[in-house]
## 1
Amino acid sequence: RKGAALLSMCGGRPGSAFTPGAAYEKSPEAEAGCCARVFFTWPNPIFVRGNAKVEGAKGEKVNYHLDEKDMFPLLPTDQADHLVSEFEKQYAENAKKMDANAVYTTLKNMYWGDFLILGVIKFFNSSLQFAPSILLNIFLENLELQTDGIAGNDPPEWQAYVLGLGLFLALSLRTLTENAYFHNGTRLAFRVRSALTTSIYRKSLRLSPAARQGTKEGSIVQLMNVDAERFNQVVPQLHVIWDGIYQILGYMTLLTVYIGASSFAGLGTMLLLIPVNVIIHGRLTKLRGSITTLTDARVHATNEALQGVRAIKLYGWERAFESNVAGIRSKELEKVSAAAHMNAWATTFMQSAPIIVGVVTLITYAAVSPVFRLSTVFTALTILTQLRFPLMFYPMILMLTSAASVSLGRMERFMAAPEVGADARSRSPSLHGEPSAAKDDAELASAQPAAAAD
């Protein structure tokens, strides 16, 4: 019993023998133990299937080819029906309270617990990022003591093994927490995107005639594809907003401890580069907003032409409509080209900024420090290498967050649009098979002459 319990905790329940063509009834993740979740051993059955040999048409052994039925089914909490029903239920409650940000409030109420756990994992992961630099500095200082030739300065031999073990554990824990963070963050983003996409589609079916007339079909497609996808991109990275500052302050503190006031030269360089970064990403955000507007206009014009293609052919308006769509597309391509060039500048800037900061910091340290120690230089280089990641990705996350904020505003306005009345929906024959309003009117009209005759 103890062995079975240990096996269940570490790897989940043992799977049944592999049968070609047999589909999974449920995901192994549902019964996976804590170790299987931490080390991601629960997906192993898929790899076993992919590596299996089956009997071919001529009796020979051939590789088994995975297909859709070999995929694990989604957990109940990840299925779109569950996600959208919960979202619409809570959204309706918030909308009744006249909440102007009902979509945001609904997402916050549904996922704040998962988001908080994600933040705790991110904090531990970022805290572990500092350990390798500290352990490396201690290891190099001990190495310097062994090679300085002074008797009695040699550190105990066991310290090297302890430092090596500590470095191994720090890197292993950092990897495990990083994998856990991105796995749970991606799952959370998937849930948010599924709930939003399905809710927007259902809302488009309930729009009132007035709201439908004022809503372009291209904008609905844009909401479902582009705006919902932005949440899929930004949700796993939202914690970087505070974590980026935490990492930058932590690495700058370590630099100050190891190289002293020279670290402030790097800090000053970073502060000087921030306005340039803000200008570049500000222009990039404006260009992307213009692209979105032009894309909506192009999709609307294309749909309009397709819906009225008979009239266009009858009156010979092909060239006029073609010219209209081509003109919008030409303006859109100009903005896309400008955005691509600006994005290239932004990427170049993000790649070069950490290098510039490192060069300025080490030049300043070489100028003011009388001793250029191996342990200090290599530790500083390691810290600067780690520092480049928050410096590179922090502006990108701010840009994604800004774009997601714009998308959220568009969703709020769309979800708040008036709907067809509940009475009209309940009388629709396509929904419930009940008599339509037109049929009721016909029956009333036929009854009026009989009443007059009486």
## 2
Amino acid sequence: GGPARADKAAGRAADQGGVEPVVRAEPRRKRTLYTRSCGHSDWVTCAAHAADGRVLSGGADGKVCVWSASGPARATTLLGHVGSVSCLALSAPHTGAAQHALSASYDKSIRLWSLDRPAEASSAACLRGHRAPVLKLVWAAELLASADREGAVLLWDLRTGAHTPLGAHRGHATALAPLGDAAALASGGQDGRVCLWDCRQRGCSGGAAAAAPVHHSGAVSELVPHSLPGGGGELLLSAGADKSLALLEPRMGLAVVARRELSDFPYSLAAVGSVAVAGCGDGAVHVIELPSARRLYSLRTGGAAVRAMHADPNRLVCACDDGGVRAYTFGAAERRGDVEPPLGVAPAARAPTEAAPPSQAQQYAQKKRLALGRAAALRAARAAGAGVGAAASAAGGGEAAPRVGELD
């Protein structure tokens, strides 16, 4: 969430500190956003960039930390949540306007924070209306919407704090995205449905999500609205647990216009120019042509799930489960009004750049994977030995064969 910065990416990590790498030809660690005196005491669950360069992080400890834009790692801690922070959203920067942030939490609340005076360490407002942990949050122009673990989708009036229920999915709500000029909202759920809500009808409910068609045979994992270049129209990209990417047409009631099967569960999704980029659980990154859904090529990041990514016309940045951040550059084609961005050129022109040598976190993750693999192999061997013993007992009058590990 928050405005994307061209040269930085804030990574989420399953430890107590965030890592802010510089994304250029090769990523390098700039700062570790954690000190003995400030930072999170539990997992970092989300991160966002403010327009002035500050980094916001939310954690399982219920804290929201506002980190300095440069220099030594210093943070102001915003307290108020009593449950894990699930997501962050920032107001669009306007000249002379105050900068605000929103945080959603498993405590079923949404809190508004003033970034102009974060040292006061108290929220400007607390929005309550959900009956379950808030999992998703969207803030775009005048649109503020949220979705929770019971599938409910709520529309908020930030001036009054009032909310309007739009409808609900069966199971968790898993994705949320604004469409067009924020007059419409798309939501995805565990039920595999993508629903389109009219946000102009604030006074009435949008109805039940069960009336929407099923777009995936598994949960919807990501929703990304995208405008095709050259006036090619609007698409809504939907990634699902059924290992597929569906291209939906908002003006046709979210009809599926194309679909592409993926190699694994898609954890992250981005779109730029005439391509979509999907990061999967097996470490593969698939570059897919729009609107045909034809796969152009795939990148391998090393086998760990690609949890988050950023794509712009020049570069692709992937944050993976092994604790690594990998950056790829996409050539240096000259910019002209009639030329596709570098990300849209032929695969031969691309020169992916791998990351620096593995960090301590990456080395630890690799050792853990190897240990888990050895343990799985040992369990399989023991199960096979037990099966042999049972067969021998049945055939030889009850004397069991020795178990694995008992042979001389």
